[in-house]
Every structure is written in structure tokens, then in C-alpha cells.
Design brief:
With 313 residues, this protein is an alpha/beta fold. It is built from ten helices and seven strands. A five-stranded mixed β-sheet has the order 2-1-3-4-5. α2 packs antiparallel against α3 and α3 packs across α4.
């Protein structure tokens, strides 16, 4: 990165306009007490905007005082970020991308146009209208070569269209940002090569899609809705939901399923299973397998044979 220094000629003072001051106070209020310095970048940006595209040294001192920061801290921010211009620029500030994708597509020829129409980098034309600077990638590689002029991108440039653009800006004529060849966004030159079937967009395919469901599964589905979806009863998720509702409505159904899994007959809601008698001990086995005696303390079932300690009746 090149060394960034403040311009030799500086204004005597700087103060925000009343509107910009209210805006700056609103930015500062976004941060908690003691953290006001977090607003330094938006305040520098607003100062640059008010001052015709560059940040003067008095603005740096004024912002430092507003935020309670040492002046050198604000100076560090202003000299580090290249989006802050430290010297006067033209009314139309041209930032020409010279990174590899743009260079491969003719950016070097555009630099010669800048030298011809404007002069060397950082030079402001006598009428104050134009100045330019070569910058790193601006993120429009698919539309190279390109340039950012103030807040707008101008893409798909060539020497002829670029020179005409600069002359229009100097003369105050209206210009059109974006691609200078008329293509849409970053679509390929020569027109689209995919999704070109008009029926994808005229609605005819939606009607054909609805017809696939007409008469399907008669007697099982309701009529399709306005959006062309099949009836609720034919959708798997609807059937699953209906089954769940049936199960919730009949608790006994869940109980019978559990009885089948445990190998016991289902006797209905509220009924108790008939106790079985253990073959070895003669003890009733309530809710257990035949080869496992009931737990001690289980009351014998009325009518069951009584046994002694030796297991005999």
C-alpha cells in the first residue's frame, strides 16, 4: 500500500452542518457510554461527503473532540482506510480497477484514456470536474473492465465508451450506470443461453401441472385447491395426520397395541389381567412370566390353593 499523507493545503476549520450534526449525534447515540469512539468511521465518512469528497485535517480534529479520542487515533483510522481521501478530488472521482481480471479485459487501455482526458493520478482538472485513481478489485470481475465513479459502477467499458462517459460527466449530461454494453447484470454476451423457454414464465406450465391431478384417485381425494395442489386425503402427510387423530381419539386402541406387543389379551379399558400360578411355587404371578414368581407380599388371588413353605398344598 502506498504511503497516505494529508494534503499540504488545508482549510482553517471544519464544522458539521446542522443537519449533519444531528445525524452524527444519532450515530454516537447508538453506542453505550464510554464506547462513542465506535462511531469514528461513519463520522469520517459524513465529513468527507460534506467536504466535497475528501477529509481535511480540521475535520479529523473536530471528530476526535466529539468522540473524546486522541487526535492521533482518528488520524490512524483516516490514513489506514483507502475509502477516505486525504486530498481534494474532482466532482466526479473515478476509481479505475486495475486488478488482474480487469487488466486482462483492457484496463490498461482505460488508464491511457484517463491520462488523456484528466491527467495523471490524483490530478484534478482545472474545472474541478474530474480526477482519477487506480484502485484494487472492486468486486465486479464478471463485468470487467469497470470503474467506480462516486457511488456508481460503470461496467463492460472499452476506450471509446469510457472516453464518451467522461466527457458526458464533465458536460453535466445524464449517464447510465451499470453495463455500458446493455447486457443484463452479468449475463453472457450475445444473450441468454439457458432458461430461454417462454413457457417457463407465461403460466402455461402451471396449468399443465394441475391437469396431472385431475381425476387421479377418484373417490379418495378432494378436488384440487386454487394453487393446483392435490386434495388433502391423497397426501401422505395428511393420511399420517388423520391416523394420529384417530389414535388420539381412541385411547383403547393404543392400549390394545401395547397388549399385543406384551403377548397379553386385551380385556378392555379398566379390566385387569387374570393372574397365573407359578408351576414351581404355586404363587400367583400377576403381570410376570410363568417361570418368575410374583414379588413377595403380593396378595394371593381368591380361590387359589394355599401352599406352605415346602411348596405343598
Amino acid at each position: 500500500m502506498s504511503v497516505r499523507r494529508l494534503a499540504e493545503v488545508q482549510p482553517e476549520s471544519f464544522a458539521f452542518t446542522q443537519d449533519n450534526l444531528r445525524w452524527a449525534e444519532g450515530q454516537i447515540a447508538k453506542y453505550p457510554e464510554g464506547r462513542q469512539m465506535s462511531a469514528v468511521i461513519p463520522l469520517l465518512w459524513k465529513a468527507q461527503e460534506q467536504n466535497g469528497g475528501w477529509v481535511p485535517e480540521p475535520a479529523i480534529r473536530a471528530i476526535a473532540e466529539m468522540l473524546g479520542m486522541p487526535t492521533i487515533r482518528v488520524m490512524e483510522v483516516a490514513t489506514f482506510y483507502t475509502m477516505f481521501n486525504l486530498a481534494p478530488v474532482g466532482e466526479h472521482f473515478v476509481q479505475l480497477c486495475g486488478t488482474t481480471p480487469c487488466a486482462l479485459r483492457g484496463a490498461n487501455a482505460l488508464k491511457e484514456v484517463c491520462r488523456k482526458v484528466i491527467g495523471e493520478e490524483r490530478h484534478v482538472t482545472a474545472d474541478g470536474k474530474l480526477s482519477w485513481l487506480e484502485v484494487e478489485c472492486l468486486g465486479a470481475c464478471a463485468n470487467a473492465p469497470m470503474a467506480q465513479i462516486n457511488y456508481d459502477y460503470f461496467e463492460d467499458l472499452d476506450p471509446a465508451s469510457f472516453e464518451a462517459l467522461l466527457e458526458d460527466l464533465r458536460a453535466g449530461r445524464e449517464v447510465q450506470p451499470g453495463s455500458q454494453t446493455g447486457r443484463s447484470c452479468s449475463a453472457p454476451f450475445g444473450g441468454d443461453t439457458s432458461l430461454t423457454d417462454e413457457t417457463l414464465y407465461d403460466g402455461s406450465r402451471v396449468g399443465a401441472w394441475r391437469k396431472r391431478f385431475e381425476g387421479h384417485g377418484e373417490g379418495e381425494q378432494t378436488s384440487p385447491d386454487k394453487a393446483g395442489r392435490p386434495g388433502d386425503t391423497t397426501r401422505p402427510e395428511a393420511k399420517s395426520s388423520a391416523d394420529k387423530r384417530d389414535a388420539d381419539a381412541a385411547p383403547g386402541a393404543r392400549a390394545s397395541d401395547r397388549s399385543r406387543r406384551e403377548g397379553q389379551p386385551y380385556l378392555g379399558s379398566g379390566a385387569q389381567p387374570t393372574p397365573k400360578t407359578d408351576v414351581a411355587s404355586g404363587s400367583p404371578t400377576v403381570g410376570t412370566s410363568p417361570d418368575k414368581p410374583a414379588d413377595p407380599g403380593v396378595a394371593p388371588v381368591e380361590g387359589a390353593p394355599k401352599t406352605g413353605k415346602d411348596g405343598k398344598a
